Input
Amino acid sequence: MNLMADILLNVTIAFLVGSVLFGIQRKVMARIQLRPGPPIIQHLLHTMKFFIKETVFPKTAAMPFYVVITVILCAIWVAAVIVGPVTQGPLLLLFAIFAIHKIVEHNAGSSSGSPYGKLSCVRAVFSAAAELPLFAVLIIIFLQTGTMQLSTIVAYQAEHGALIFTLPLAAMMFIALIISKSYYYSPLNITLAKDIVSGFETEHFGMLRGFIMISEAITWYMLLWVFLTVFFGALSPLMYLIGMVILTALIGAVNALTPILNPNHSVMTEITLAFIGIVGSIIMMFYI
Amino acid sequence: MPVLDFINLTYVSAAVTIIGSIGIIALPKPIDKVIMFSLLQGGFIGMIAAAKYLDVAMAAAIFDPISTIILLIGIIKLDEIRKKKQKQKSQEDGFLV
Amino acid sequence: MKLGRLWNSLATPKRIPKVFSIILAVVLLAGFVVPLTYDVHQVYLKPAPQAQVNDQDPFAPYNRGGSPLEEPATYISQYPQFAQHQGMITSYLSPIAIGVSETTLYFGTSILASPGGVIDEILYFSRGFDTILESSIMLMASVIATWVALHFTMRRKEEED
Amino acid sequence: MFDVYVCFYTGVFLLIVGSIATVIGPGVKDPIIRSLNTEIPSVGISLILLTYNHTVALLTFIAATVIIMMILLRAIVRLEEMGADV
Amino acid sequence: METQIYLVYILSFVLGSIVGLVLSYKKYTEPFVRKNIDVAALVLAIIGWVLALNFALIPIIPDYISITVGVFLFAMVIGMRPGYGRYETVIGFLVAGIIWILRTVLS
Amino acid sequence: MVVPVPDVVSPVVVSLYIPAIFTGLLVGLIGLMAIAYQKRDIHILILTDIVGYGMLVMVAAVGTDLAEALILPGLVVELAEILAISELLMSREMRKLDKTTETVELIPVPINLNMEILETAPVFFAIILVIYGAFLSGFTGGAVAGAGILFYVLSKVTRGVPQNIWEGLSATAGVIWCLWLIGFLIFFVAPDYWMLGLFLAAFGLFIEVAYKAGLIGVIGREEFKREKE
Amino acid sequence: MDITTLGGQLLGIIPLGDIVLYVTTFNLFMFAAALVFTVLIAMSKTEKQVEAEFGTLNDREKKVGKDEFKVRRFLSIICGLATAGAMITGDLFNFTLFVTLIGIVNIGIVSAVKEVDVLDSAFQYGIIAMLATLPLFGGAALILAATGTLSMFEIVNIPSTAMMIFGSILLFIGVAGESGVAPFFATKAEMFRTAGSPFLVIIHLSSLLVIVRAIEVILLISKPF
Output
């Protein structure tokens, strides 16, 4: 297939599936809390809605940055889709993309001039310190498999069995990362916590918000995709879908049942988890 | 004569340096320290001379007084400030009394 | 909750240098038990200490052979294929340096440090990019210091007005 | 005549003793005494550089030490003058 | 090739949900959860789930078409406005599941 | 002339390597432990110097020309960071005090030293050092000449430097730095002109470092003559 | 072990004497990202922080002054360039120098502000940056002593010894201190409370990208395979 068409196809799938997964997550949380919950399609509809709303810019914003940052957010996750499902490229690149995602989060918060955005920006710095170690799970994978290419990691798993059985602690770390990135009422997601309104998105309206929401959907899809690929190996698209739905439902349940931690505690929880995960995995690798 | 073997430039300079350093550590007053510092520097220059790097020794010899002067300026200034502060403090105390 | 308080205290800026230095100290302690293996095949070798001085060489300790503008000096560099005129800078001597070298035996360091010599070759040519960075560091630090000095620490009177 | 080992171990001695003196020497509560004590390890470093015949680095180091000293003294004096408690 | 078909399924799910949402807002005006079962929705759900899971029962139609149609139909029920369409979905899924089990066990 | 470069590192350096590294580690350790329990910021600043010395020993212990070339960056970095951070510390304390108390003496005490040496020595020293530094060129010459200028500026009794002169000097240093960059590029773009590159690099760096060090001396004089504005 | 194992395809090298820069897909992506952000920073204005005042109906506005804006923008651009350079350099010592440059410039970017708390954390961060020169240069020197080279192309081919691993650990601690990651993040996060969003983003950008790059460097040195 044509590479361009492949990219377009995968990005569209990522966007649609990600949006619907968010809907499922909200539905699960709502049912746990004995509410009817919004329709599953709600997140997608919101995204669409923002594109036909009027776009306004705050007078205090840092101008080119404020607009461009949303486009960059979109661009990096499209790049992630290219690295991931399309070309099965190096994992280290995904790590870099995640690092830039943290930066974009930070700057989307601070460039608007809103105090809520500013708080979210400071928290983004905090959480970057915690989420990058979690993402360093990829290094553990490298230590285990000896390769950074996704295609060879998949081949390795076809030969030696799924990595989730050999590296359960690493999988735990990655789940913690996914929880910290989940959108609604996550215990660890301090940048979008509801005590600072909408975090870094507070001052982004109209088109810009639409872009952010598209990127969020792709982000969610990509995180789950990386998890499934790296820990379960090659799956059929149907299995990917089912796996994603299950993971999303699980995380929805976790979010519905846990309190929201304060920033310090959230960060240190993540760091502690990362520490346990990294050290534990390395010990398990050498002694078991 | 094994004792006399030790009297060459290297050993003497090393001894001077060590004496200087002990002096710096042991003497409490900054001015004394500066004097001992000159001793340390002297030993050091002797050591360079023993290694036959005359130009380096010359440069070190020029920088030695410079650092001494800088130290002196600093110490004197600090002294002045401290005295002034004490005076102010005692004045304030006097008012209180 | 004890753990929570510990976590909070770790986030105090004033404590961070201390935490850092403790962690670094612990790692440095490990350095005493790690077997240190020194590889004798280094690049840019030096003759043994004091060897050249004892030979009464006027360029000691930086004589690396070669003759000015004619014959390059010899030394082991990492990538000779990327350097066309390797060794020429090392062997270069300015006229003053030649004059000095003919009069005295003990000015080798000054002769070397004037343009030409192996350190200049490393600093400007084969590892010139390092020097770009280190002089930029110097420049940036003084930009910061002068800016703060000009706009704040030295203009107190104006701010009072 | 020049003994490399003597030079080196004198340097090591000065370095270690000097740094210990800087850390817990007598009267180091006073910043100026502490910064004066740092001169001892700096001479120790100079001797070690001399041992390895790093004379260009030695020359630079001697000059740089003067500048560093000057910066530190300025900071100490200024802070004392302000009455800052740091 | 496979991913393209999945794109079609997902699009059909999304479109179905939107259609279902719009229609259900037309049909029900009050925002309460209704305990009684809507027959039309039930029929849609059963047909949809059966088509989506048991496409092998109708060998004449290519399986991707039947799945697409099935997904569209059950998505209409899932996507109904909050509080509606839950029982219908569950029943439809159960019926389709029973048929699927029977089919796989019997054959 | 003999070609005196050996094939392997001399045994003296090899035998000194482990003691040297241990010394470096030990000195670093002492400094770090001191910082760990030290409470006052200015003391921490002084103690970071010790840690820097540990680093210098570790680099010097390699004992090759390359190691020597690497010491210079280390040295410059130490110098630069101490300069920037001490300035930062002072500005922080000043802002802090401005807020809390108003009785602080803000006008600096002038240097009132009647020392003979401060009248005659500076010119002499400064001239010697600048000439010697110019002969040395590069970093080394810059540091030597810079220390000379610094000393001269510092010990003059008159106070107050016009801000214009300061800014002019800084800007010159920046421009000279660009010259230096051009010199570096010549080595790779036009290797046949390596002589020109060498001289641009050597003297560009010399002037830049000397100016910077001299400016530190100006900072030491506590005040600006406010002619601008 | 090969450089391409980690970063994907090798796209080219830039030799500058002994220092050889190299570009793989991974390096190129981060290099481009750093440059894009640098260009954006050079173009953008700063934001104004507007907060409501207590007790009245007025707003309180925090702005970046013109002088401050100029110097901070200059330093930010340098920081961006240094980050971009650190992404593609193929020489160990060069990398450490880039990291140090980033560290000092980061301090500079916040040194121009007026808030005491921010200055305080900048000072603490500066202290860490100074301490970090020991592990950075010391680690590089250890690796040089153990392998006899500083070029990563050569180091990847040398089987790693305990000393090299120790050196790489030192290097990582140095980078962690210099760029302020966990658990040293607190000094850094406090620095972000001031105004001037485009300049603050480069601080964050540089530290994260450098950490990602440092992981690559360390895997290249210590070679688990």
The interface with chain F takes residues 16-17, 93, 97, 100, 104, 107-108, 111, 114, 116, 119-120, 122-123, 126-127, 129-131, 133-134, 137-138, 140-142, 144-145, 150 of chain G (CB under 8 Å). The beta strands of chain G are 10-16, 19-24, 49-52, 59-62.
